[in-house]
Amino acid sequence: PNQDEDNLRSPICCIMGHVDTGKTKLLDCIRGTNVQEGEAGGITQQIGATYFPAENIRERTKELKADAKLKVPGLLVIDTPGHESFTNLRSRGSGLCDIAILVVDIMHGLEPQTIESLNLLKMRNTEFIVALNKVDRLYGWKVCKNAPIVKAMKQQSKDVQFEFNTRLTQIVTQFKEQGINTELYYKNKEMGKDTFSIVPTSAISGEGIPDMLLLLVQWTQKTMIERLTYSNEVQCTVLEVKVVEGHGTTIDVVLVNGVLHEGDQIVVCGMQAWKSPFYVHYLSLGPIVTSIRALLTPHPMKELRVKGTYLHHKKIKAAQGIKITAQGFEHAIAGTSLYVVGPDDDVEDIKEAAMED
Ligand code: GTP
Ligand code: MG
Ligand code: NA
C-alpha cells in the first residue's frame, strides 16, 4: 500500500444550499441528534462543525457492502446557513472544504441560494455531490428507514417512481441551465469527469443517507490523496468568538491541517476598541499573542456550535472542529487564520502574517 495512505487527514465536507432544504436535518439524521429543532426559528445562523469517526461511517454504510476500505480517519462536516443574509458564512464554509454537499429540496428544485452556493463551489473548483432531499414528501412515499436509495426506490409504487423521475428530470435541466451536468449517482459512470452525482435522500426517514456518506468518503479517498496527505504545517480558521461559562472568551476553530497542542503559542488577528476622553470609540487592529490553555472538542457526532460537554485533548490532529480557551480572545475576529509560533519562528513575522488576513 501507498505510504501516503497511512497518513491521511480527515476530509472536510461543507453542506450548502437554500434555506430550509434540510442541511441541518440531514446532519441530525446521521448524528442521531436534534440540533435543528433547537435553532431560533429553525434557521441556522452560524457555521457548525461535526466530526464523524470512520467506524460510525462504516457502520452506517455497511448495507451497501462497499468493498473499498476506509482509509481516512473520519469526516469533518461543516454546516452552513442557507438564509440569504449569510453569504459571508457560506463563502467562509466553502473556503474550508475539500468536498461539498449541495442540498436541493426535491419539491422546490433550484432556488436562489442553491445557485449562489453553486457559484461559490464553481469559483473554487470544489467537487460536490447533490443531495436531492425530502424524497419522503413525494406523494405516497413508502418509508424504508435508513435504507440505501436503490433498495428504497424499488419499494415505491409506479406513481411515486413517476413523480420522482419527473422532478429529477426537471432538476437536471435546471442544473444544465447553470452549466452543470448532473446524474443519479448509481447511473453516473463518468463521476467527476464533468458530471456531478445526485443522491436522493430523506433527512426524516434516512433513505439515501448510507449512499451519501459512502459517496463522500470514497470520492475523497479516490481523488484527493495528495490533498488529504497530512502536513505538519498548521492551517486553521477561526469560526466564532464566544464567551463560555467557566472558560471565559473562547474561539471555535476548524483545524484544516497540522496539529495543535495544549500550550502552543498562537497568534490570531484582533480588534481593539479604545475609548477616548471625548467618548469617541476608536477601533484598531492588532495581533493577539497568547498560548493555548485548553483544546476542547464536542464528543464525536456532536455539533461544535451547540453547548454541551467537552472532551479535553493534549493534542489534536486535523481535521477537527475545536474550541480553544486562552487568555486575550475578547477581541479576536472570526473568519481570520490562527497561526502557531514554532520553535524556529520569529513571533514578529507571525504577527505580521496574522494581520494580513
Ligand atoms: P437553514 O440552515 O436555515 O438554511 O435550513 P436547513 O437547510 O438546515 O433546513 P433544516 O434542517 O432547518 O430543515 C428545514 C425544515 O425542513 C424542517 O422543518 C425540517 O424538519 C424539514 N425537513 C428537512 N429535511 C426533510 C426531509 O428530508 N423530509 C421532510 N419531510 N422534511 C424535511
Ligand atoms: Mg440549517
Ligand atoms: Na432551517
TrEMBL record:
Q: Where in the cell is it found?
A: Cytoplasm
Q: Which domain of life is it from?
A: Eukaryota
Domain Tr-type G, chain residue ranges per copy: 8-225
Family stated for the protein in its record: Belongs to the TRAFAC class translation factor GTPase superfamily. Classic translation factor GTPase family. IF-2 subfamily.
For this entry, the protein name equals Eukaryotic translation initiation factor 5B
